[in-house]
Model the fold of this input.
Amino acid sequence: RFSCLVWLEEVSSTQDFLKEREDLNCVVCAKRQTLGRGRYGRSWHSDEGGLYLSFPLQEELKDEQTLPLVVALSVCQMLEDYGFLTSIKWVNDVYVMGKKICGVLVEKLKNRSIVGIGINVNQRNFPQDLPATSMFLVSGKEYSVACVLFFLLDKIEVNLDLLKEEGFRAFREDIKKRLLFLDQEVILHTEPPVVGILKDISEEGYLMLLTAQGEKKVVSGDITLRGS
Ligand code: BTN
Done:
């Protein structure tokens, strides 16, 4: 699947680089991004030291909902091989020691999707208002960004094949056991916000909340711990 790699010194966003090149079927990586972005139009802090990559998925994606979760799980597995303890903040963030270490962004275009991943590897500081951490900040060690990339691509490759063959049920338990805020009361930041206890992840990758009105399946949105 990943047979070609483009490694850039600097780019606006690896997502845009791929969006503008419809025929490029490569993993695109950059040392830094000047306009890195996250979900909901947020910006993604992209200083040197992090890993910023995107890749296209050409095949018809039945797994729009579950793909970010499976990619986040791949990041967890890679980080766990390095000795980190990880959690998945539904639907597409990876946390270590209560702080965000990775974000996943899946953008759907006409006939393909572009998967973007940002991992904080060697950064030593972040803007004060960002609850972010890096592999360096957690362990005190520096890592080869290229090795992190290759280990990650290995995990993603295996997991995407499995997703295709067996569907999301092959991952559900592995994701559930890493779910941040499991059995805790969370706020889903929708209009109006919803409060509930995070109980499970459904077969379709939805979040199952136990609210005062009963069980509720949530398709998308941001959650935070109630009272935090
Ligand atoms: C999020 O947390 O909302 C998702 C962040 C995704 C960031 C990555 S970095 C590589 C790729 N290029 C971008 O501009 N964004 C994604």
Observations:
- The mean pLDDT is 94.
- Residues 45 and 129 are 12 Å apart (CA to CA).
